[in-house]
Amino acid sequence: MKITVVGAGAVGATCADNIVRRELAQEVVLLDIKEGLAEGKSLDIFQTATLLEFDSKIIGSTNDYTKTAGSDVVVITSGIPRKPGMTREELIGINAGIVKTVTTNILEHSPDAIVVVISNPMDTMTYLALQASGLPKNRIIGMGGILDSARFKTYLSLAMNVPPSDLQATVIGGHGDTTMIPLTRLATYSGTPVSEYLSAEALQKVAADTMVGGATLTNLIGTSAWYAPGASGALLVESIVRDQKRIFPCCVYLEGEYGQSDICLGVPVVIGKNGWEKIVDFKLNETEQAAFNKSAEAVRAMNSVLASL
Ligand SMILES: NC(=O)c1ccc[n+]([C@@H]2O[C@H](COP(=O)([O-])OP(=O)(O)OC[C@H]3O[C@@H](n4cnc5c(N)ncnc54)[C@H](O)[C@@H]3O)[C@@H](O)[C@H]2O)c1
Ligand SMILES: O=C(O)C[C@H](O)C(=O)O
Q: Could you tell me what this protein does (predicted)?
């Protein structure tokens, strides 16, 4: 198994680090356009092999795509992150060009790869990667919902004072401050609805905190987050390379599912060796479906900007 991570910045390097620690591939390639960055970070990460006892090799490359040839999975993290006060959507102008070029370069050398898109605005970048590549829809997966769901569980855990790993909670819709939909109705604490532990107001606050989870971190750090994003990317890759068939909310191309078409948006999917293999129907109620439709409207408006770039 061979995995490439494009972008050796904060998210890309953290994702690659998680991938080798979990031994998801014999070979991992970290690639960046900035001279020396990917080589340096890869060497640093590989020097932890004897300390952390993993048996995956990682090498770096400055924009030499021949090194990525034959990759089974490629994770795209290249692109600028937002600064405090910005939305993810404001990154479209610069990141669209980067994601398009990277997708083309990658597929030239790894035509069979499954592509995971992390660069923001992620829903639109996933749609762009699908269009630019012409790949079958199942091989393009946007990562955002896994991260947003992890944040949802974190805020629930803090509010309820219970371990995050005992919580099941999912965020669907777009990966944007106003477009994501934390499904509070379906969240459980080991099978029991969380509404039995939290008041409606408390649950509302958890949902609101989740939606601005990325912005909160960006304001605190000065740039956007990377530990949880990198780990989320690696978890998605793990389900692909180990064919685990885990159900994660991911950004995938919809053709009528959840009432939407010709759009990439976050819905629960089964992830396995073929990429996203099946869309799971959560049977949304009227309010949730209305929120999903509104989210789709916003993402569709952003997708339409692509034509003018
Ligand atoms: N989807 C998510 O859940 C999620 C989570 C966190 C961050 N992000 C997004 O991920 C992206 C990366 O964030 P970051 O914090 O790692 O930023 P960063 O600035 O630390 O790293 C980005 C890297 O991309 C590289 N790069 C730029 N153009 C390139 C090209 N053409 N080819 C190869 N490499 C190129 C840069 O040199 C840089 O090292 C941002 O767009 C950010 O918004 C998404
Ligand atoms: O918040 C951001 O801009 C980065 C990322 O999408 C996140 O949610 O952490």
A: Catalyzes the reversible oxidation of malate to oxaloacetate.
